[in-house]
Amino acid sequence: CFMCNDPTHVIKDCKFYNDFMDKGWIKRGDQGKIYFKDGVFVPQAGVGEARKDKILEYAKNKGW
């Protein structure tokens, strides 16, 4: 999974991805890329990181 790094599912089945979408924190762009609700591109995670953690940190900093 490109969101949480769990090898047992893909992003569309990820509980974190679906939760962030339901909360309105992220959205899919025209080409399938993921953006924050304020239009900022969600960067890919580095080695040993998960994209979900970047989203949680960004949302916390924004007060979402």
TrEMBL record:
The lineage of its organism: Eukaryota, Fungi, Dikarya, Basidiomycota, Agaricomycotina. It comes from Dendrothele bispora (strain CBS 962.96). It comes from the Eukaryota. This is CCHC-type domain-containing protein.
